[in-house]
């Protein structure tokens, strides 16, 4: 309905010529939702002076742009057809064309030099581009469908209502077991290891409705109350819907396979960065602990003891001090940053030589995390990142 | 050691453990707490080790913190050299004492500068501290318990300020520091006196202890 009014308003505007800020609107009889008044006297065309600012729609007040179901469906059809066209263009099979193939094809056909990755051309499924929105909650007569509509957060309160219903079901089951005399405390418990409760953002995604931290906390507390009951395994699958698996961090490390050079000596290359310094390290097997940095011996390149300790750290941690040779190139940064970059590069190169348990212990020792600390930028109106200008009374 | 203010790391990251002994313990001999901690570490990302620490037996986190506190204008080379010279001079003095002492007292003399440093720091740590609380327009010094990190910080701070202020302009920093550390090891010296003064003030202001509401 609002769209029809807008279009008629635009039609009205294009109908009438505005004259320098003040547009005179002559009410025509063609407009559909304008009620014509028929006074007893002859109808005079009234000259109504309004300014263009009043006629302009308040776009911000309408809220976020609403998409209809048909519009989204049409977008999905277009996306699928476009995917098949792309597959034909790239010479691949349209049936088995994945999202990665689409990304590669778009990057090839529309090369962009923009630094901001989010500004580059993208072709994704419409579900990922258009945000999920609620369908209209009330019928033609204006009466809402859901009984909790007037709470304001209907999906959240209906979820709490359902969950508490499950709680009462479990209690009823308990009472029935007690009546039959089959009640026992040690029943099958829900397995909570390796998973965590959902966070507020994930809950918002499920409910398609913004909720507060307090709401999320209350919901988790209710679920924990259910878990405290002895017969909670009845509603296990309902509860598991709200748990997310915790990924084991050590699986995320990328371990390159060992490479072999002409003399059958195993070597591995690693890269590391710290605070504008980049380093590439080559760690060779069957060595005697020589370290060469940019063609120079490490004793000459790093006269400070602390930097040499950092170079030795990965080897010393794995007990392989005199067993490997290391050769590295490093640019940028200062003395300490270059040492940190080489440390990360050697740790990553050594991953190819060691067992999984050692990889995990290296990760827990902090050798495999790139240090995110960089120099904080200076802000306008201040002398440095934190230091303010000297305060003057006048 | 918890960070103050905001950090570049997500609060989800855990602190690293660079020493090797923790990873040498076989799985069967772990206590329940250690097992729970290991399981937590397996699923959480870990921060990078700072460049002052390594896994070698020679690196000590307390000494590293002391070096950082002594550092001025980011000159860690100078701070670290002062500390190494301090330890060297402490060792020399103790070894001299050891050789001059009769055979009965030889075992009582501690020569390892690191143990002397740790023991001296332990002797300098105050047990109770004072906090300024405003009540009825006036500020009162209220006695309060201190956390471990605060106690360690106060001990180190007192040592450093003492060595910077109350020394003759011709004596080097490392000399004065070694004298203070050896005195603190024997429970004498200005820093120990300052700690006792703090305790006496706390005892004197005992009446105001109920002004603290936490």
From TrEMBL, chain B:
InterPro entries: Ribosomal_uS7 (IPR000235), Ribosomal_uS7_dom (IPR023798), Ribosomal_uS7_dom_sf (IPR036823)
UniProt-listed GO biological process terms: translation
Keywords: Mitochondrion, Ribonucleoprotein, Ribosomal protein, Transit peptide
Gene Ontology cellular-component terms listed: mitochondrial inner membrane; mitochondrial small ribosomal subunit
Keyword Signal: no
Pfam family, one: Ribosomal_S7
Domain of life: Eukaryota
Subcellular location: Mitochondrion
Annotated ranges, domain Small ribosomal subunit protein uS7: 51-206
Family note: Belongs to the universal ribosomal protein uS7 family.
Stored PANTHER family: RIBOSOMAL PROTEIN S7
Protein name: Small ribosomal subunit protein uS7m
Lineage: Eukaryota, Metazoa, Chordata, Craniata, Vertebrata
